[in-house]
Design a protein that fits this description.
Helix 3 (about 60-85) runs parallel beside helix 6. It contains twelve helices and no strands. It is globular and about 55 Å long. The protein is mainly alpha-helical and about 300 residues long. Its main location: membrane. It is found in: Cell membrane. It is a multi-pass membrane protein. It comes from Halopseudomonas formosensis.
C-alpha cells in the first residue's frame, strides 16, 4: 500500500497531463507558456530550495557519487558501443539508457517513500548528473563523429535553468548565506507548485510522442529500467553503503529516461527511437519501480 501511495500521485498526474495533451484541452500557445513558467521558474526554484538547506555533509562523499556514476557510465559506454557497431555511426542511445528523469519522477517518488530528508542524496547526485553524462556524450560525438567538440552546444545544455537552480542552491548552502524569511516564504510557495505542474507538463509532452517498436527500443528501455538499477544495487551491497542512501541511488537509477536526452538526438532516426524510449520507459516504470521499491524495503 505504501508503494501505491507513492506511485499513484506521480503517475496519476502524468496520466492526467497526457489526457489533457491528447484531448488538446489547453491551446498550444497556452501549453507552451505554462511549460516555460514551470521549467524556467518553478522547477529551478524547487531545486534551489531543496539544495540551499540540505545537509550536504551527509551526502557529499566520493563513494556515493562513484556508486551511482560508475554504473551509469558503464551502461553509457556499453550501449553506445553496441549501437555504434549496429548503426556504423555515433548516436545518443547510451545517454538514453543511462540518463534518469531524477527531477520529475525521482524527487516526488523519494519524498513520498523515504521522506524529505532523504533527498539530500538525490541532490548530491543531481549536482553532477547532467555535467558528467552530457559532457561524456559531447566528447563521444566529437571524437567519433564530427571530429570537433561543440563547446557552445555543451555549455548551452549545461547552462539550463534547472542546473542554474541547483548551483545557486549549492552556493547558498556552502556560503551559509541567510535568506530573509519573507523571501524564503516566496521561494516555498513557488516550489510547492513546481512538481504538480511539471508532472502535468511531462504527461502533456508524452502525448506528442509515438512508439516506434524496434529491437533498439526494447534494449534501451530494459537497460534503463533494469540493468542500471541492478548495477547500482550490486555495487552498493559490495561497498556496504548506508541503507537509506543505497535505496535512494537504486530508485534514481530505476527512474525512466529524462526528456533532456532529446537535445542530443542525431537526426530523425535517433529522434524517433529516443522519443519512443522516453515514452515507453515512463509507462513501464509504473510497473518496474514498485518492484525496486519492494526489493529495497527493509
Amino acid at each position: 500500500m505504501t508503494v501505491l501511495n507513492a506511485l499513484i500521485p506521480v503517475f496519476g498526474l502524468i496520466l492526467l497531463g497526457w489526457f489533457m495533451g491528447a484531448r488538446r484541452i489547453l491551446p498550444s500557445d497556452g501549453g507552451a507558456t505554462l511549460s516555460i513558467i514551470t521549467f524556467k521558474l518553478m522547477m529551478p526554484v524547487l531545486l534551489f530550495s531543496g539544495l540551499a538547506r540540505a545537509d550536504l555533509s551527509r551526502a557529499m562523499s566520493p563513494l556515493l557519487l562513484l556508486l551511482y556514476f560508475l554504473p551509469a557510465i558503464t551502461v553509457f559506454v556499453v550501449i553506445n558501443l553496441l549501437m555504434h557497431r549496429r548503426l556504423g555511426r555515433p548516436s545518443s542511445m547510451g545517454l538514453a539508457a543511462s540518463y534518469s528523469n531524477n527531477v520529475l519522477v525521482g524527487i516526488p517518488l523519494i519524498t513520498v517513500m523515504l521522506g524529505p530528508d532523504s533527498l539530500v542524496y538525490l541532490f548530491a547526485v543531481l549536482v553532477f548528473h547532467s555535467l558528467v553524462l552530457f559532457t561524456l556524450q559531447s566528447f563521444y560525438n566529437a571524437f567519433f563523429g564530427s571530429g570537433e567538440l561543440n563547446w557552445r552546444s555543451l555549455l548551452g545544455s549545461l547552462a539550463n535553468p534547472l542546473i542554474i537552480g541547483l548551483m545557486c542552491g549549492a552556493l547558498v548552502n556552502l556560503s551559509g548565506l541567510e535568506i530573509p524569511a519573507p523571501l524564503w516564504r516566496l521561494v516555498e510557495m513557488l516550489a510547492a507548485a513546481a512538481l504538480p505542474l511539471a508532472l502535468l507538463m511531462l504527461g502533456m509532452s508524452l502525448s506528442g510522442y509515438r512508439i516506434h517498436l524496434s529491437g533498439s527500443l526494447v534494449l534501451l528501455t530494459l537497460s534503463k529500467l533494469l540493468l542500471m538499477p541492478a548495477l547500482v544495487l550490486a555495487l552498493g551491497l559490495l561497498a556496504g553503503l548506508d541503507p537509506l542512501a543505497h535505496t535512494v541511488l537504486v530508485l534514481m537509477a530505476a527512474c525512466p529516461t529524462g526528456v533532456n536526452v532529446m537535445a542530443f538526438a542525431m537526426g530523425q532516426a535517433d529522434t524517433r527511437i529516443i522519443s519512443s524510449v522516453i515514452f515507453l520507459s515512463t509507462v513501464v516504470a509504473g510497473l518496474t519501480l514498485p518492484l525496486w521499491l519492494v526489493l529495497m524495503a527493509p
